[in-house]
């Protein structure tokens, strides 16, 4: 505590270059900050998207990664919520419980540190990482691709230390996002019909959430036939590969469900699929939730009459989940065997071979890859 730590991290020096694993310095936490030894991190499309240089908020050099778990190494002045040794999950969607957003009861989008985390700096506008004599930027307030990271006290939550961190790291993004989209954002009710477009980690977690809400029919849609077995294992009652249809997926869904779905979810990030998901909703009440992140500059469209006639279009970040308030409960559900996490992990890697994780991600048979740091 109180001293700079030298450790290894995967540094993103510039856009569209592989991460470089090297020694970095991690400064001590300042007031209101916590230094965490990152044990495991998942790799998510957003990390790769930012590395590719297409993310308008992407800044270099930086340390990416936002789906991580670890152990508190030390805390800065004024931090009372955490102590050395706590088992934690890092939160790219912070929760301060005090800002207008947190207090509204209407959103999980805490804004306490949003402006600075978007700029890759700590709330005091400085950084805690140095490498090759240069300042290195933070990412999404988390930077989990480092053996040690420093985060705001609003960007982590302590959870039951009995839960294995090589699994709970996935609660930092993908699994929580999909599950929360069904349970928190859409609030799927018992007996409802649901369609999920895109059966990656996020889509699978929506299936799990819809099943937990006791949906009556859960239709999974993916262009990759390999996802059918996956979808069924996570609660889908039907699977459709839209490429194999002779009519549009919207017509198929509307026909199969006597007028459309009660709830649909986009987990692809493709704006054409987002439109299909909206238009497959039932007239008068169907609700479509956008989870996928579209490429920079992309726009959605539909005929306004779709909304005039009672379909609703909404979106969700981190599944509407308030990390501090809700993740300890999800961890408990996992420990009680009532919530899947292990099943999403198809690949593992190490910090030294973090770039391999991105190769796995691109190959199509990877749901989630977890790196041992
Ligand atoms: P993934 O790549 O593992 O899964 C996407 C799936 O969609 C794949 O199985 C792919 O075959 C399928 N797909 C692609 N195009 C399709 C199409 N036209 N029709 C049907 N299926 C299609 O990705 P993921 O990790 O599950 O993430 C899904 C999306 O969610 C990404 O856009 C990601 O950036 C986003 N995301 C959003 C949040 C949030 O908070 N809103 C959080 C995490 C991830
Ligand atoms: O502006 O308050 C805000 C929060 C923006 C974060 C939204 C994140 C949505 C998707 C991120 C992809 C996965 C990390
Ligand atoms: Zn807040």
From TrEMBL:
GO biological process, alphabetically ordered: formaldehyde catabolic process
Enzymatic class: oxidoreductase
Record-linked CDD domains: alcohol_DH_class_III
Annotated ranges, domain Alcohol dehydrogenase-like N-terminal: 31-159
Domain of life: Eukaryota
Residues covered by the Alcohol dehydrogenase-like C-terminal domain: 202-331
UniProt KW keywords: Metal-binding, NAD, Oxidoreductase, Zinc
Cofactor dependency: Zn(2+)
GO CC annotation, single: cytosol
GO MF, any single term: S-nitrosoglutathione reductase (NADH) activity
Assigned EC number: 1.1.1.284
PROSITE patterns in the record: ADH_ZINC
Family membership: Belongs to the zinc-containing alcohol dehydrogenase family. Class-III subfamily.
Cited NCBIfam families: adh_III_F_hyde (TIGR02818)
Protein name listed in UniProt: S-(hydroxymethyl)glutathione dehydrogenase
Annotated source species: Tilletiopsis washingtonensis
